[in-house]
Request: fold
Amino acid sequence: MAKICVIGTGYVGLVTGTCFADMGHRVTCLDIDKNRISQLNNGVMPIYEPGLQQIVQQNVAAGRLDFTTEYPKALEETEFAFIAVGTPSNENGEADMQYVRNAADSIAKNLDHSIIIVNKSTVPVGTGDWVAEIISEQNHNTPGFCIVSNPEFLREGSAVNDFMEPDRVILGSTDLEAAQKVAELYEALRAPIMITDLRTAEMIKYASNAFLASRISFINEIANICETLGADVREVARGMGMDKRIGPAFLDAGLGWGGSCFPKDVKALAYMAATQGSHPQLLHAVMDINSNQRKNAVKKLEQGLGGLKGKTIGILGLSFKPNTDDTRDAPALDIIQLLMKAGATVKGFDPQAMQAVKEILPEITLCKNPYEVAENADAIMLATEWNEFKSLDFKKIKESMRGAVIVDGRNIWDGNMLRAMGFIYYGIGVPNPK
Ligand SMILES: NC(=O)c1ccc[n+]([C@@H]2O[C@H](COP(=O)([O-])OP(=O)(O)OC[C@H]3O[C@@H](n4cnc5c(N)ncnc54)[C@H](O)[C@@H]3O)[C@@H](O)[C@H]2O)c1
Reply:
């Protein structure tokens, strides 16, 4: 059993801390957000993540997991300090490192014993060395510390399972012994563990996210070509995915990627490349295709309605993907802004993200359910494929709508059936109305 401290209780920090506690370690999760820590101490989850609350409660009850805002308390006798704070985008695409810097400062100020600092945040290549410098500069009595990079690959919505059953664990360090000690923490998961150098581990995370984002942009580009040529991208993706060299994952055409990771990580990678004199053409194309994909969806609404001014559009799904309340860079939010700019009124519903949207876009009307969204709407657009949207009562929806346009941004509905019911149905990458 190890004594672990996890800094940051966002999706990654909270899941990491809870899962290590569940594996039998003694974990303290720390956050500077007092409200978050007080929620956690009262058994309230600050994020929506399926299955997480129960495991948190079990491990708190077993005395293996606790929460604090105090660095000295969190670091007391800790053998491993995991940094899992946010690394959002700056205006120019660069990763904003202020949270990592503050976490490193606080570790330096409060460190009185040797420790392994493990960086789980997605950070620019070279950050491990930079964190080491910060700690050495500020703590001249440093009793000895090592830095290990351990990028996280969990997905919101299936985060606990992804953490407990990872495809691989990546560790990078200049200190092999330190990396091996971190590897021991993961041994119980029986996953492949790859140990490499610090910078390579940091790069593996960016390259992985950029690759996945590229696959989605690729299939969205193919979807747009399919629409012009009368092919069906769903079948194209199915046929492509049967090829073992390609595989079926991340080939669903839609409104493009969003969320807390892909947008900022692709931008940060392009920024890093540019600062070193490279011109990452593919990354720029991947980002351009992604932002155009939202505009293309709005064009479908405009075409179906003969203009957007004065029209009421209902949006189903506001989080960036199902099973999360995270709305960071959600396609729905970009689309809503484009619609409002064009003079439309927007209503929306999401099973978990309503609170977040209320704060970001107070102008839109938030409804209690999909049927309220449809009431008197000229069109509805599906932006996030929550399960509960998969089998709606379209007869009821048709009767309550003012118009009859449907844009299915994730291709989850049966277009032929909806057209037979009198809807003007648009999917993504499928034969659509001219
Ligand atoms: N969200 C994901 O699905 C995901 C997946 C893989 C990797 N990542 C990466 O993991 C990192 C964390 O992501 P997230 O989504 O969990 O972040 P988040 O923004 O949801 O949470 C970060 C937390 O860190 C806290 N924090 C900030 N500064 C702090 C400090 N100095 N000391 C203590 N706490 C501090 C914040 O209050 C916040 O609660 C990012 O680099 C992200 O790119 C995220």
